[in-house]
Amino acid sequence: MTNASSGSGNATPAAGGNMSAHWRLFVIEGAILTFLGAAAIVVPQVATLAVEILLGWVFLIGGIFGLATTVIARQAPGFWWALASSVVSIVAGAFLLRSPIGGAISLTLILTCFLIADGILMVFFGMEHRRQLSRQWGWFVANGVLDLILAAIIILALPGSVVWVLGLLIGIDLLFGGSSLIAIGFAYRPK
């Protein structure tokens, strides 16, 4: 059995082979995320509005389909819970579409919670990679720390910057995450 934390700087054979076999996918995904992140940074108001509208439609359409499914299968257990869930989804979607600024405030608060949780999880994910794949694990930890910094920026910038902060922070996160994937992909490119 190979000890992955021996500090040799190499990945375990199975993990390293898997990463090397798919290095191009990491680079392609990273390039797409980097492009989208740069676009969101250039026009953060548009990115904020786009995210808010997209989620509004997702909730609204999902709620309508959920409501239809619930009514059709009304004899199924949990009818009232499913009905309430569908109505909540429809109301949330309608709110996001009808009140973009109110929706942006709500989404900003949700994004803050997501960044805090994702930041903590990415740090632990990076530490796990440190034990399994000793190369490039710091990128994951740095991404997690960046998520925590972005969450702090959101908290400090509320409420006046709600119109642009969501798009800007999503752009920064996408840019950094994409760059991390590109670096990892090239690190595992077969030589």
Write the layout of secondary structure elements.
Layout: H1 13-21, H2 23-42, H3 44-72, H4 79-98, H5 100-132, H6 137-157, H7 162-187
Helix pairs in contact: 2-3, 2-7, 3-4, 3-5, 3-7, 4-5, 5-6, 5-7, 6-7
Explain this structure.
The chain has 191 residues and is an all-alpha fold. Helices cover 83% and strands 0% of the residues. It contains 7 helices and no strands. Helix 5 (100-132) packs antiparallel against helix 6 and helix 5 runs parallel beside helix 7. The longest helix is centred in the middle third of the chain and has 33 residues, at 100-132.
Low-confidence stretches: 1-10
Please give the alpha-carbon distance between the first and last residues: 25 Å
Major β-sheet annotation: none
Question: Secondary-structure element sequence?
Answer: HHHHHHH
| Helix content estimate | over 70%
The number of distinct β-strands equals 0
Number of helices: 7
Radius of gyration over C-alpha positions, nearest whole angstrom: 21 Å
Average pLDDT figure: 83
From the spread of the alpha carbons, the general shape counts as: globular
Helix-and-strand structural type: mainly alpha
